[in-house]
Amino acid sequence: MFDQAPTLSATEEARRQIEICNACRYCEGYCAVFPSAFSQRAFSDGDITQLASLCHNCRGCYYACQYTEPHEFALNLPQALAEVRVESWERFAWPGAFARVFQQSGAALSAALVIGIAALFWALTALTPESGEGFYAYLSHSAMVAIFLPAFLLPLAAIGIGLRRYWAEVGGARIRWPHLKEALIDGAKLKNLSGGAAEGCNFEKGDRYSQGRRHAHQAVFWGFMLCFASTSSGTVLHYVFDMQAPYGLFSLPKLLGVPGGILLVLGAGLLIRLKLKADAKLGAPRVWGGEMAFVALLGLTGLSGLVLYAATGTALVAPLLALHLGTVLTFFLTTPYSKMVHGFYRMASLVRDAQRKEA
Q: Does the keyword Transmembrane belong to this entry (predicted)?
């Protein structure tokens, strides 16, 4: 009887594959992963974490590779790096147990939180404020601030802890403006999403290129930013100019929020469609459900806000307000543990790569 080969950890398997890539170098002109990997000969655990965060899972390298199965090397670099990414998010998260629960049971956890929190808000609407217009006729402004301010700040603190751990592991140096500028430009252009191909990426069409994933990501990003800007402008109007909600259709909060909600819904819907078409074996299959739950939560956040606005002045406002606030609060609370956090780590990896190029 032959002894069974030992099972490699995600980091060890990714290192094995990167070392083979380093010997081949066929993909040298692809995304930032390969120039970074080919600039060195040995790879620490931190190096593998950095390469995994640089990878945008465009999958172009997989379809170009001559060493995928049935070759004995059995390379599947998109999957190997995806597994390392997920493990790193769980390792850096604070508290880490929350990340593991969401990654493995994201759909059930998100649904339970949305329903539970919405039910709580529904109960609170029974305590109708003495005064208030619009949404504040159902839940006072002070109550909303008391609930959502900690729910916004505490996840940011948790993300900050995770980023500090990431930066220490990958050996990041002091950040200077040129590093940050290059990272912001690459991130805004989604440069690495195309794997070096102007035609797009191979995420959902195998060996054929598509721009669908780029368009979906841009819609989600700008939709989210417009929604955030809408909330921020409403805060400024409330506290600086003493202009309290509700705001009209042609007010700044609505001019930003309505298009933002539409983009968020369209982008999330397209991401779900693409993810259903894509080969799950080229990602991290064990967290597929958690990733889908995160995208669905994004879409529901935008959709519930739009429906709530459309229902203004009707008897549906109270239940729809509870659903929307439950969705938004769930989104905030799960941000450090869902795939939403990948944007922060990806930006950090781009900054670190800019530092590598300068060294």
A: yes
- CB distance 268 to 218 below 8 Å: no
Same domain for 55 and 164? Answer: no
Q: Residue 346: what are its φ and ψ, rounded to 5°?
A: -65, -40
pLDDT at 4: 46
pLDDT for residue 131: 55
Q: How far apart are CA 140 and CA 131, in angstroms?
A: 8
- Dihedral, 191, 194, 197, 203 alpha carbons, nearest 10: 180
Looking at the domain assignment, is residue 1 inside a domain? Answer: no
Residue 5, in any domain of the structure = no
* Residue 210, SS3 per DSSP: strand
pLDDT at 133: 57
Q: What is the distance between the alpha carbons of residues 96 and 103, in angstroms, rounded to a whole number? A: 11
**Residue ending a domain, choose from 88, 114, 145:** 88
The range of the structural domain enclosing residue 246 comes to: 94-358
Task: Show Cβ contacts of residue 354 under 8 Å, excluding neighbours closer than 6 positions.
Answer: 178, 179, 180, 182, 183
CA 231, 236, 242, 248 torsion-angle sign: negative
Q: Looking at the structure, tell me whether residues 243 and 313 fall in a common domain.
A: yes
Confidence (pTM) = 0.89
Q: Which residue in the block uniquely carries the two structure tokens 């032959």? A: 2
